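Technical appendix A lists one of the benchmark inputs used to test multi-chain prediction within the project. The record comprises four sequence entries:
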Amino acid sequence: MTLDARKEHILLAIIQDYITTAEPVGSRTIARKYKLGVSPATIRNEMADLEEMGYIEQPHTSAGRIPSDRGYRYYVDNLMKRQELSKEEEKLVLDSYLTKVQDVGQVLRRTGQLLSRITNYTAVVFTAHYGKTKFKHINLVYMSSGQCMVVVVTDAGSVHYRIIDIPESIGPADLETISAVLNRKLQGQSMENIKLTLIKEIYFELAKQKHILNMAMDLIRDSLAVETEEKIYLGGVFNILNQPEFHNVEKVKTLLSLLEQEQELANIMVDVFQVEGVTARIGEEITNERMKDCSVVMAGYRAGGKPLGGIGLIGPTRMDYARAFAVVEYMTKNLSLVMERLLCGRNR
Amino acid sequence: MTLDARKEHILLAIIQDYITTAEPVGSRTIARKYKLGVSPATIRNEMADLEEMGYIEQPHTSAGRIPSDRGYRYYVDNLMKRQELSKEEEKLVLDSYLTKVQDVGQVLRRTGQLLSRITNYTAVVFTAHYGKTKFKHINLVYMSSGQCMVVVVTDAGSVHYRIIDIPESIGPADLETISAVLNRKLQGQSMENIKLTLIKEIYFELAKQKHILNMAMDLIRDSLAVETEEKIYLGGVFNILNQPEFHNVEKVKTLLSLLEQEQELANIMVDVFQVEGVTARIGEEITNERMKDCSVVMAGYRAGGKPLGGIGLIGPTRMDYARAFAVVEYMTKNLSLVMERLLCGRNR
DNA sequence: TGTTAGCACTCTCATGCATTGAGTGCTAAC
DNA sequence: GTTAGCACTCAATGCATGAGAGTGCTAACA
C-alpha cells in the first residue's frame, strides 16, 4: 500500500506540476524540472507502475499523466508538506475579526468572504446548531399607533424580529407589561419546554392582549425553530470560473445548481465537522454525482467544546491542497476563538 | 423618426423571432412565419432600409439580421404589446407576500428570489433609504455574567444588534436603567441631532456605565449610518447561464464581476427609481462597458409617497421586454403595498 | 412606381485529410 | 536496474472543399 521513495518522488512531481499547470505531465517534463537523477525512460517505467496501481491516469495514449483521485489521496495523506500562511495573510484574518464584535451571522458571512478571497476558491460556511436553542429575551417595541415590533433573542446569540399590527388602543406601557410577563415566564426555556400549561398561564395572565400574544408566540416559535436548522453561507462562488476545468458552461451550471441547494451541501459537510482537524474529500469520495470533479477541504469550528459547524473550500480535484489545509486550519482556529467569545462569554 | 406600418411589422417580426430563437433572422423566415403578404425579396428591400436607419444589423454578410439597441428601443417605445401575468403567477406573488409579515430585509430578499424565479432572469432589488433614519428604540439584554446584547431599532424598520462585554458587576437591572435613559433621551432623533450636548447629558446621567455607554452609542451610530447606505439584493444570478449569449465563460465573468460590485449596480439603478412607471435601459444606454450586451428593466417602489428603492431584471439585450415589463410592474405595485404596511402602519 | 423572380455572390460551418508534436511502450544494449 | 533508440498513437492544427443560408442586384411584371 505504501510506495518506494522514487515512486513517491515521481508522484509528488506529477501532482505538483499538474496542480500548477493543469496540463497532463509527461516523463520528459519531470526529468527536466524535478531533478531525480534518472532519465525520462526510467520515469516512464515508474509511471507505468503508478498507473497500474491506480495513482495516476492517462487522458489518452499520447498525453502525459494526471493524478487520479487515489493519487491525490495518497498525496494528501503521505506526501503533502505542511504549509503556513504568510504574516500578511494572518494579519488579514485577525484584522477582519477584530474590527468589530459582530453578531454570529455576520461573523460567519465574513468568514466565507475571507476564505474565498485568500484562496481564490469557493468557500462554504455551515452552522449546525447542535442541541436546543433556548429562549432568552423578548421585547415588544412600540412603533406607531397600531404597530409594534417584536424582537426575540435566543441564547445562540441571534436576534429575530417582526413587525405586527396591534389594536390602536394599545400603548407603549401595555407592551412593556406583556414583554415583562413573557420574559419572566419563558426565560431559558427551549421549544420543548414551552408546554401547554405554561402557555395557558401566560394567556390567563394577559387575557386582554390575546391577539398580540399570538403574534409574539409565533415569532418565538419560529425563532427557536430556525435556530435548529442548518444554515449555509457561501463566499466567492464565482471564483470557480477562474479554474480552467470550469471553462465550459455546462460544468459550471451543474456545480452552481448544487451550491444553490443548501440541503445537499449540508449533507456533504455534516459528517465531518465534528471530527478533530482538517479533512479532505476528494472527487468521487464525495457522495454526490455533481461534485465528482471537485474536492472539498474542510474542518469544524467549535465553542465551549461544542462543535458548532464547519468551514470548507471547494475547488477542482486539482486544487492546491497544501494551501487549502493551511488556510482552513488557521481559519477554524480563529473562528472558534471568535465564536467562543460571542457565545460563551468573554475570552480575553 | 417614425416608421411606416410595413417596416414596423417587419421590425416587430425580426425582434419577436430573435427574442425566441436567438438566431439571426432572414427574409425567408419572416415571409414564411409572419404572413405579411409580400415576398422575401420585398422584405429584403425593407430590411436594407431598416439597417440603413440603424434599427437592425447584420453579424456578417450571409447571416440574417438581428435587432440593434436602437431597434429594441423602438420596439419598447412603440410596438410592444402590453402583457398581463397569468392568474397563477399573480397568486404566486401574493402568496409569497402574505405568508408572514416579515422584516424589511427579508421582504426584499424574497422579492429578488421571486422575480428571478418567475422570469428566469437575474433580479436586482435595491434600497435607497431616502432621507434620514431616526433612532427608535434601544434595548440592552442581559445574557450572562459579563455579556450583554445591544439591540437597536430604527424607524426604517430594521434591527441591529451586537454582543458586548460588560463588567461582571453589572446586572440586568443596571442594563434596564441604561436602556430607559437612552430611550428617553434619543427617541426619534436622527444622527445629526444626536449632538454633543445631548451626549454629554446622557453621560452625565449614567457616569458609572461609561464603558457600556460607549459600546451602545457605537451601535446606534453604526445603525443609523448603515441605514443611509444603499443595499442591494440579487436573485437568480445563475439564470444568466441559461442564456445562449452567455455560453462563453469570459462574458459570464465580466458580468458577474460587475454584479459583485454593489456600488456600480446602484449607479445603474439610482437615476430611475424615482421616476413613475417601468423603465428599460437597453445595451449601450447603460453607461457601463461591462453591461453593453445586457438590458435592465426596472421600476421604483415607494411607501407613503416616498420613493424607497427599485427593482430590476437583468437579461441579454435580447430579453423578453413585454414580459419583463409586466412582471416588474406587477411586483413593484405589490412590493409598494407591503412596504407601506411595514413602515407606515397598517394598510388594510 | 412598387413588387417579385432569378441569379450570382458572400460568408459561416461542418467535414475530411494531411501534418506536426508530445508522449508512450518496447526492445536491446550497457 | 538503467538508458538510448525507435516505432507507434493520438490530439491538435491548418487547409481545402462543399453545402447551406442569406443577401443584393437586375430585370421583368402589374
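The interface with chain B takes residues 100-103, 136-137, 139, 141-147, 149, 151, 153, 155, 157, 159, 161-165, 238, 241-242, 246-249, 252-253, 256-257, 260, 342, 345-346 of chain A (CB under 8 Å). Residues 24, 26-28, 40-41, 44-45, 47-48, 58, 61-64 of chain A lie near DNA strand C (CB under 10 Å from a C1'). Comparable benchmark entries are summarised in Table A2.
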